[in-house]
Amino acid sequence: MTIEQQIRTLSDRVREHSDSMGTEEAVKTAVVLPFFQALGYDVFNPAEVIPELTADAVGKKGEKVDYAIKVDDQIRILVECKPITTQLQKSHLAQLFRYFTVTSAKFAILTNGREFQFYSDLEEPNKLDGRPFLTIDLAEFSNLALSELKKFEKAEFDVDGILASAERLKYTSLFKSEIAALIDNPSEDFVKLIAANIHEGRFTSQIVEKYTNLVRAAFREVIRDSVQNRLSSALASSEGHADDIMDDEQHEEEIVTTEEEREGFLMVRAIVRDTIDSKRVTIRDQKSYCGILIDDNNRKPLCRLHLNRSVKYISLFDSGSEERIPIGSLDDIYNVAERLRATAAKYAPKSKANASAPVAPTDEPPTSP
Length: 369
Hints:
By secondary structure, the chain is an alpha+beta fold. The protein folds into 3 domains: 3-174, tt1808, chain A (Alpha-Beta Complex); 185-199 and 206-233; 259-355, no CATH class. The protein is built from 11 helices and 11 strands. The protein has helices spanning 3-17, 24-38, 94-102, 143-149, 159-184, 188-195, 205-236, 242-250, 259-272, 337-347, 350-355, and strands spanning 49-53, 65-71, 74-81, 107-111, 115-119, 134-137, 281-285, 290-294, 297-306, 312-316, 323-327. The strands form 2 sheets. The chain has a 6-stranded mixed beta sheet with strand order 1-2-3-4-5-6. It has a 5-stranded antiparallel beta sheet with strand order 7-8-9-10-11. Helix 1 runs antiparallel to helix 2 (24-38) and helix 6 crosses helix 7. The chain is globular and about 75 Å long.
């Protein structure tokens, strides 16, 4: 099963069986350990996923953190678990605060089995932040959450890469919360700011109250219109796909296509040129991978190149689902050439696909004219 399939299974479990997870141990067994297993960690190896870690330097005798996870023989993630009925609060971070300063951990996770809060030391080195940079609700799991969660996979784990996006995630989340609060309950200052170029005269309490209701309604209509326009655009194109909308929302930061990615794209296009028109093979770079598509359509993936990390991969789609294959260098792409051609053949006209197939030999002599 892919990571997405495993996380979706956990999401269903949380929605359907949360009533049976009233204890911390139930949350650990039913959700937390399978969660990290989905990310590629060996939860049965106590040298990799360490239960009930103690550190004498903490100064609290007998105090333990539920799990410490090692990557490359170094503690990188600390995990504190609570029952699913617990409303996670800053007070629950006490043990994580203390352990974060005396271990090599760079990330801490506080969870009740449904909500996973991810913390780091963005504000002050070696001191755990008081606010999470990422919060994931397993019961309402999204593709955007999956893309961020994949960064914590054991095979993909890159401290610098995660921290690079953590600050943006943290403040974007905070701003979204503030915006949501303004939509539900616009402040007087905000109402005056919006109405400044519309209203002539003095702002009386009656005028502010009137405009507050109008601003609230206008906010909601803007959001509704934006959603409807996106849906209309997606439905208007038979080649459109929901992933295209998600991609637009994720392209908040500039994406730089490296020379290595360009070279990999040209190699893939050359490999499949006898199977499909090379003009149909396009490149669409993302923050976490470089996508190579047919007809620039996310519904027609040829492969994905994961090159901006210590362990490089190529994702193949010939089996119907994504399969990641480790590669030591770009030359290893030639080792999967036949699988790339098999994928390309799915999207090629039969005449083109058959044109590259070898002609069966025959024992009959050629017919004389």
